[in-house]
Amino acid sequence: MTLTSTAPLHASSSAEATQNKLPKRAALVSFVGSMLEYYDFFIYGTAAALIFPKVFFANVDPTTGTLLALLSFGIGYIARPVGAVILGHFGDRIGRKTVLLFTLVLMGCSTLAIGLLPDAKAIGNAAPVILTLLRLLQGLSAAGEQSGANSLTLEHSANSNRAFFTSWTLSGTQAGAILATLVFIPVSSLPEDQLLSWGWRIPFLLSALVLLVAYLVRRTMPETPVFEDIKGKDQVARFPVVALLRDYWRDVLRVIACALIATVSTLTAVFALGYATSKFGVARPTMLWAGVLGNVTALIAQPLWALLADKIGRKPVFIGGVLGCAVLLFPYFMLVTSGSTTAIFAAAMVLYIVYSAPNAIWPSFYAEMFEARVRYSGTAIGTQLGFLAAGFTPLISASLVGEGPNGWVPVAIFVGGCCVASALAASTARETHKVDITDLGKRRA
Q: Which UniProt keywords apply (predicted)?
């Protein structure tokens, strides 16, 4: 009797233990995949600010070359809404895991190709054209990465810790930014001729290793039980985008407006980097190290903000962080343009701590607005349309910036306005931290 009753109990305990490990495993897979994929995406931003004006846009004056390089950075964001529709459709039709594997391969191959691309001296105007096309492929890939990883982790998590586990997707993005910057720091210290001839290619060529590691980590992750359930019940939407725009158009608009907070990220990572080094003589390594310290601070803070959101709700943490960023942009620019290394490091760390609040919360906050059959599409399309503003923030900022020590004021006002719009949109959302995962996205009477 003992043997007969223990065997099923042992099997049940083993299955339960495996089930309990899935949220942690999903969070780890999302973290590593996002880190390695966004390493690829972020090295382009760093190169666009520091390298590409002299390598691919050298046939025009330096100011125009910088604007064209920043435009090529922004063009990657144009592809993202298109990628969101395509990848969101298949993510909601065939599953989260398959699409996430595809995004890795696409990002890795396009980034490797950039590292092998001859410069303008070798092939003339074809070089910036091909560079822009490869940037478009990066954008297509990035469009499906975060939304898929968010859906995967959210749907493997328990109701009480969805924000915490889902926040690790954005922690992976943050880690990708750190990794990209750390690779660029020694490269940027090379003599100018070596940097512009072959040194800048190293971070891009390393994407081959990035692709291999990410693929091996992600390919063994099972599909989510939530998606398997709707698939088993034949509830998968035939055309998820149609169902999304019919039933959730208000939520899509809400996510678009909320996603304007991402303008803070590209402002600090791309525009401020080029602005401080070119206009105020700040050393490139100083600004790069400031980015590393800021992102490390955010990496530590994000899980803590997410734990708080699981306790008190998504909205207060998200809105508080967004409004905090709007205020801190002004002292941030004052300190970054001061020339003091200590002040620059302090400015980056404080702003990133506050920015990490909405950054940690939005993966759960946005995804919980939609039911499972349109969740991938809803978060992908909403965020990527909102991220268009972030993609062109460096270019818009370069156009708005004035002369003199306070030339940054119009830029701070522009991005601060985006933050206020994001907070207003978030205030209209439903609070979901106590809603069961099976009830998420259901229309209220």
A: Cell membrane, Membrane, Transmembrane, Transmembrane helix, Transport
Residues of the chain with pLDDT under 50: 1-18, 444-445
Block residue for tokens 């980056």: 348
- What gap in Å lies between CA 305 and CA 393, rounded to an integer? 26
How high is the pLDDT of residue 19? 54
pLDDT value of residue 443: 60
Spell out the long-range contacts of 154-157 with Cβ–Cβ below 8 A and sequence spacing 24 or more: 154/363, 154/364, 154/367, 154/368, 154/375, 154/437, 155/96, 155/224, 155/225, 155/226, 155/227, 155/372, 155/375, 155/437, 156/22, 156/23, 156/25, 156/26, 156/224, 156/225, 157/23, 157/26, 157/27, 157/437
Q: Find tokens 């698939």 and name the residue.
A: 231
- Cα 97 to Cα 102: distance, rounded to the nearest angstrom: 9
Contact 336, 276 (CB under 8 A): yes
Instruction: At 344, list the tokens.
Output: 């620059």
pLDDT at 76: 81
> For position 1, what pLDDT does the model report?
41
Angle made by CA atoms 262, 104, 355, in degrees to the nearest 5: 20
User: What number of residues does the chain have?
Assistant: 445
What is residue 378's predicted lDDT score, i.e. its pLDDT?
A: 94
For residues 387 and 262, the answer to whether their CB atoms sit within 8 Å is yes
Nearest-angstrom CA–CA distance, 372 and 229: 10
Spatial separation of the C-alpha atoms in residues 295 and 356, rounded to whole Å? 9
Reduce the DSSP state of residue 333 to 3 states and report it.
helix
CA dist., res. 83 & res. 4, Å (int) = 54
- 3-state SS assignment for residue 152: helix
- Sorted by where each begins, the domain ranges of the chain are 25-223+240-428
Residue 221's pLDDT is 79
Task: Report the C-alpha gap between 175 and 40 in whole angstroms.
Answer: 12
CB 255 within 8 A of CB 366: yes
Locus of tokens 């975060």: 146
Compute the distance between CA of residue 91 and CA of residue 252 in angstroms, rounded to an integer: 17
Q: At what angle do helices 2-50 and 162-188 cross, to 10 degrees?
A: 40
Cα(55)–Cα(52) distance, rounded to whole angstroms?
Answer: 5
DSSP state of 437: G
Amino acid at 389: A
Closest CA to 265 of 382, 348, 379: 348
pLDDT score for 35: 83
Q: Which fold has domain 25-223+240-428?
A: Growth Hormone; Chain: A; (1.20.1250)
Q: What share of the chain is helix, strand, coil (3-state, %, to 5)?
A: 85, 0, 15
